[in-house]
Q: What sequence folds into this?
């Protein structure tokens, strides 16, 4: 398995899309956080300031992490590289495992970078507009760690979607709208159900609003992980059975 | 040594590979021949466990492919030449595959040298020509210095010089004691290269033999020209031989010795303008053996019996 992790890491870093997505994540995360914190209303309570600091970036940056994971698998099918890849790694569970490890770890590192840059930019902006917050106050450290975990899980979920669907365009076309507003739309009809859906549950990892969050962060994380595991499991079962040709 | 036993594969109602068994021996180039759509690529994917066989198994020196610890160090394969990310350099493509099977990176420059891609090694593959893709595919197959090679239509897209080169390469690899299994739908491009033949049609084994035996089994005939051809044809028919009148005004006789034909003609004082032994070319023997077994075999025009429809 180590050899496959090494191979997948070389593969991930030798395609340009990895770095384009990484740069886009950092720039977008920082930009959105600056915009959100700059528009904080005068005299907003601390909870609202923290909310603007922590939650806008992951809402959009998740799309890039998902895309990273999706492309890591689905592009193998798009470009036919799955054939030489499987020739070198015929035990498919090992290949899937190596991709999850590499994309997951990369997602965590990228997520940590995005979060660090976003928080620094956001805290600076809040100071400039005269409504400072402390980046070490209250639940902020927990929410920051939760954001990083959220990004990592998004990347792994993307791998699952990629192996499940195989065509990058379809996988992205389904997962992105779902992650961005699909659950929100369901939530407007069925709010009780929505809090158990993957991304809404996962958002509890970094939520700081005290106005009765639907789920405890730990429960939300566990649900998000469970959804991710289910997608991976479904993808894995199909991957084991499916022909390449 | 490759031993394939009872391989079968169907897609829905369509039988792609039908109880196919064969052996491929080291030190020889074995041609895997059949018309397009006859199941060659499917067979190769099944052998490497990329596609699931409904029945049967393939052993490489006694091991199934997925059980080999570093498979590309034992079995090198080229199934799809285009299987490269267009934005990745040829070198990085091979670095990934080398790492996956603990192949030292020094092999990468070795194989680029072997296939003549050294100058293009650090270029992105997006701009490669079909011939360059084939060479990169061969480099991939050779990367692990494997004792067995499985190559699907490696001559596709190569220019005559490239075909000449690959023939020499295949012979050299077999000469080094490797097992070389190479598919083609064109016997002509293989005739000078292969030692053994495995011929399939509609997924079934049609012939497995040494090349010389395959040609030997092919029917021989006699070409006859005469101003009194029709009369002669009738007389030869009386010998129990099969006669075919060609478009060029010659008569092809199968099943009668040239001497017997000459005697018959002499007995009736029929002048002979030509009496030639003809052995059917390898291509004709191949077409004869696989007649009606191609998926796209045309009806009516016999010259079009070698389909050009691409195999997926």
A:
């Amino acid at each position: 398995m180590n050899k496959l992790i090494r191979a997948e890491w070389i593969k991930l870093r030798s395609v340009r899309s990895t770095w384009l997505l990484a740069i886009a994540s950092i720039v977008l995360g920082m930009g959105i956080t600056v915009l959100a914190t700059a528009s904080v209303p005068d005299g907003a309570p601390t909870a609202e300031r923290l909310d603007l600091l922590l939650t806008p970036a992951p809402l959009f940056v998740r799309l890039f992490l998902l895309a990273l994971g999706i492309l890591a698998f689905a592009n193998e099918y798009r470009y036919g590289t799955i054939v030489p890849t499987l020739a070198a790694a015929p035990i498919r569970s090992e290949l899937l495992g190596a991709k999850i490890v590499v994309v997951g770890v990369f997602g965590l590192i990228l997520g940590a970078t995005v979060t660090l840059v976003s928080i620094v930019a956001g805290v600076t902006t809040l100071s400039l507009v005269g409504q400072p917050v402390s980046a070490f106050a209250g639940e902020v450290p927990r929410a920051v760690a939760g954001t990083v975990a959220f990004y990592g899980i998004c990347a792994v979920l993307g791998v699952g979607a990629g192996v499940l669907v195989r065509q990058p365009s379809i996988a992205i076309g389904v997962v992105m709208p779902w992650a961005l507003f699909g659950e929100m739309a369901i939530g407007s009809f069925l709010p009780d159900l929505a809090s158990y859906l993957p991304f809404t549950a996962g958002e509890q990892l970094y939520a700081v609003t005290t106005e009765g969050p639907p789920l405890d962060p730990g429960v939300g994380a566990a649900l998000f992980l469970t959804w991710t595991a289910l997608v991976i499991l479904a993808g894995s079962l199909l991957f084991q059975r499916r022909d390449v040709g | 040594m490759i031993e394939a036993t009872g391989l079968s594969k169907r897609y829905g109602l369509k039988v792609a590979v039908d109880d196919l068994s064969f052996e491929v021996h080291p030190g020889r180039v074995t041609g895997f021949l059949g018309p397009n759509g006859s199941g060659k690529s499917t067979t190769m994917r099944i052998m490497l466990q990329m596609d699931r066989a409904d029945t049967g198994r393939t052993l490489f020196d006694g091991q199934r492919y997925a059980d080999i610890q570093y498979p590309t160090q034992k079995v090198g394969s080229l199934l799809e030449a285009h299987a490269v990310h267009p934005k990745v350099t040829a070198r990085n493509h091979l670095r990934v595959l080398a790492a996956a099977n603990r192949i030292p990176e020094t092999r990468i420059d070795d194989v680029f040298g072997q296939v003549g891609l050294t100058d293009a090694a650090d270029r992105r593959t997006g701009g490669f020509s079909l011939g360059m893709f084939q060479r990169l595919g061969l480099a991939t197959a050779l990367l692990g210095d494997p004792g067995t090679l499985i190559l699907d239509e490696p001559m596709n897209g190569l220019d005559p010089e490239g075909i000449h080169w690959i023939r020499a390469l295949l012979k050299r690899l077999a000469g080094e004691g490797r097992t070389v299994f190479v598919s083609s739908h064109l016997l002509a491009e293989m005739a000078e290269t292969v030692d053994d033949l495995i011929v399939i049609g509609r997924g079934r084994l049609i012939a497995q033999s040494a090349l010389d035996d395959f040609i030997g089994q092919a029917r021989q005939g006699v070409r006859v020209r005469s101003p009194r051809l029709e009369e002669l044809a009738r007389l030869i028919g009386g010998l129990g031989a099969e006669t075919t009148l060609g478009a060029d005004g010659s008569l092809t006789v199968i099943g009668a010795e040239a001497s017997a034909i000459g005697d018959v003609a002499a007995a009736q004082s029929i002048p002979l303008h030509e009496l030639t032994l003809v052995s059917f070319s390898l291509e004709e023997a191949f077409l004869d053996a696989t007649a009606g077994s191609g998926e796209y075999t045309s009806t009516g025009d016999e010259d079009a019996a070698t389909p050009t429809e691409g195999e997926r």
